[in-house]
């Protein structure tokens, strides 16, 4: 019986592989971290070979320890850190330079120039994005401009480029497939989300040759097979790759948000909130991004997306920089020891504020301190601060979508905080639902592969078995605290001078 699905989840700090049953139980998993490179302030790079090697080894280890024979695996699904851009030689497959990671700010000045030259609306109308260094397009441009001979070689077809999904597909298929799925393409600032193709005008504006880019493909279907000779994967040669998506969209899919209006928030280092808006793209009036969730059998599902740049990272700050907790879970324990926040608000704008505020010059702020403030109040303020920022994002989504949300599905490492989940439900006034097993990104990739392999015929047929998760019903009215939060937010805004 080919009843298993293998998900490869290539993330920003580690590569993971999880083998699932078709009912969604985890049979086996493996995780391998890799190096981060910070060659200059604000720059972040990855070594493409380290990414690949860690991912291949994780896959091999996961299957080897599972006791499942490769022949029992119906399909492989990929999920990946999005926007990270790289290039490699068509002939040898060797990477040319390092990958420029999504967090890297090296193209910020060029993006400011695009805004000043009045391109914001044209970019937004076609791509659903705002000109920002976050997206891949200006990273591709940078690679071509700063690598000797690259532009000439790219134009001759000697070099290929892509995001991490393309790099994995190329290597897994032994150089047969140069493609990128819609959910990754739409994060480049070069992709027309309405026509679902690369946009000639934007490619010209960013000086990126169109022939250099991978072929856009749907998120499920025949994406190739694992070639013989792929390092570490000799035993997996011949396995079909049947699904791929950017990790945040994969998580939305894995959370089962198939209906318009359903949304999820992932609480990790930052927060990523995605709402399914159905088959019509909704252009935000409130600073959110419009993207493709997935393309399946000719139908495109669109999403609204917003992110909080610093969420779980504020807990890391309390631990590593202030030293007032020893481990993240201490933060919850302390927060629960005080009856309220004691008037303390922590705005974690360490690197500015993302959607819906978009303030590059905001900075982290703690207000309301008194001589009675304890570390428990600070811990509580940090957790509340994550929930307030999520509430700000969701309020913007509700305005754009023109309807209130019914519930919020959550996942990610920081979603284990019971205190924060309850506070989130109180603030939003709707239930917050956390699945028992929170590896929704990998499960989303597995589901896309399962659809491509024919295990199910539509997303609605996918049913995950297992222990139910936990739902947090709203209990306490937090409108007074939320109003005070808005005041704290104003104190954090426009702090740094340009
Ligand atoms: N009990 C907890 N309460 C609050 N935050 C937590 C808790 N446990 C972990 N975190 C936070 O979760 C984050 C890690 O989540 P994870 O989903 O692994 O992030 P990422 O994928 O961004 O690396 C860290 O920033 C950590 O501070
Ligand atoms: O690798 P993650 O989980 O931090 O996700 C990164 C996002 O895809 C960036 O947009």
Outline type: globular
Q: Remind me, CATH topology of the largest domain? A: Nucleotidyltransferase, domain 5
Compounds present? adenosine-5'-diphosphate, SN-glycerol-3-phosphate
Fraction of residues in helices?
Answer: 25-40%
Q: CATH-wise, what's the superfamily of the largest domain?
A: ATPase, nucleotide binding domain
| Beta-strand residue percentage | 15-25%
Rg from Cα? 22 Å
Total count of strands = 22
Number of helices: 15
Q: Unreliable runs, pLDDT <50, ≥5 residues?
A: none
* Class of secondary structure makeup: alpha/beta
Instruction: Supply the CATH class of the largest domain.
Output: Alpha Beta
Mean pLDDT: 94
Strand order, sheet with most strands: 16-17-15-14-20-21-22
Binding site for glycerol: 82-83, 134, 247-248
Family: Belongs to the FGGY kinase family.
Catalytic activity: glycerol + ATP = sn-glycerol 3-phosphate + ADP + H(+)
GO cellular component, one term: cytosol
